[in-house]
């Protein structure tokens, strides 16, 4: 698929489809199994939690689908602190029941390591198993990433599977320090700097930021410094 792959900006009526895609992507993973050990209950619980955050993203971010509805990306615009979803604790309890504390532990582990500075956060990248999975993954990430880059901010993602980590690296994301998760798992926070930060020569705070860094550093070093300031 090419750089001109079309993209559908999701609306409220698309939430059901996005929830189905995210649930199908994460239900088979080790993280999904830790969050909800009961294999029969897992898809329903995950779907209810994903719905909470997808609805929130349409208020404080963006969500996208491929035109054929086979992949989705859910983003938050973290220009400033984002409030929790309305009635979050109550909704989470209703969705998760006895598993609520596991979801809260995951929330705390990930949110504690996110950059404090303005960025766009890829919360969910959903590519369920099926034909042309690599092509679909490349297409939805590439197209939604291009949309985010028009905003001129770094983009941040947390890879909880090797497949997602490899995908993000192919698209220019650099690894930050790993985040230990409950249950012995590891999340891989990753950051991608926008092209404008290196292509502009003056009159931009991002360029001033770049100029303050010692020369001769690798792109990964620059990313790590930005994220930990």
From TrEMBL:
Residues 197-229 are annotated as: Disordered. Residues 197-207 have a biased composition (Polar residues). Residues 209-229 have a biased composition (Basic and acidic residues). Gene3D superfamilies: 3.40.630.30. This is N-acetyltransferase domain-containing protein. The lineage of its organism: Bacteria, Bacillati, Actinomycetota, Actinomycetes, Micromonosporales.
């Amino acid at each position: 698929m090419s750089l001109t792959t079309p993209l559908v900006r999701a609306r409220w009526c698309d939430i059901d489809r996005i929830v189905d895609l995210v649930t199908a992507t994460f239900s088979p993973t080790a993280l999904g199994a830790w969050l909800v050990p009961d294999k029969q209950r897992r898809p329903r619980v995950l779907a209810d939690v994903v719905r909470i955050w997808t609805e929130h993203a349409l208020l404080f971010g963006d969500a996208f689908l491929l035109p054929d509805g086979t992949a989705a990306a859910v983003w938050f615009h973290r220009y400033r602190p984002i409030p929790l979803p309305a009635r979050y604790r109550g909704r989470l309890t209703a969705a998760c029941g006895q598993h609520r504390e596991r979801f809260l532990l995951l929330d705390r582990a990930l949110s504690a390591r996110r950059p404090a500075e303005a960025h766009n956060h890829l919360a969910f990248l959903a590519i369920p198993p099926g034909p042309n999975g690599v092509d679909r993954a490349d297409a939805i990430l590439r197209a939604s990433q291009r949309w985010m880059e028009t905003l001129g901010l770094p983009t941040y993602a947390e890879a909880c599977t090797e497949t997602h980590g490899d995908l993000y690296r192919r698209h220019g994301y650099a690894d930050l320090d790993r985040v230990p998760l409950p249950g012995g798992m590891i999340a891989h926070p990753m950051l991608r700097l926008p092209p404008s930060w290196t292509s502009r020569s003056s009159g931009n705070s991002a360029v001033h930021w770049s100029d303050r860094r010692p020369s001769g550093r690798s792109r990964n070093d620059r990313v790590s410094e930005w994220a930990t300031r």
